[in-house]
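Hi everyone, sorry if this is the wrong subforum. Our group has a chain we'd like a structural model of before ordering constructs, and none of us has done structure prediction before. Sequence below.
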Amino acid sequence: MAFRISISKDTEGVFEAFIRERFKQCLDNTEAYEYFLPQIEEVIQYYNEEHRAYHNLSHIYSMLNVLDSLEIDSFRKICLEWAI
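Answer:
Right subforum, don't worry. Here is the predicted structure as tokens:
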């Protein structure tokens, strides 16, 4: 049985802003960020779909916070960040 964690629209906006900022940091280049912005928005749209019970923006947010808490070298951290 699938379930969806109830997230308020205000909280969803926080997750969206966090994901956008994280992509911006990963790309480390304003031109690249602007180029990929339509794809970033598409990812945000898909991860906000109502049928997503678990793999949603909240999940990505949580995974990135766990990653930030790990003590691993920067190469591995970058690889894992893109995988998430």
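For your construct planning: The chain has four helices and no strands. The two ends are 24 Å apart (CA to CA).
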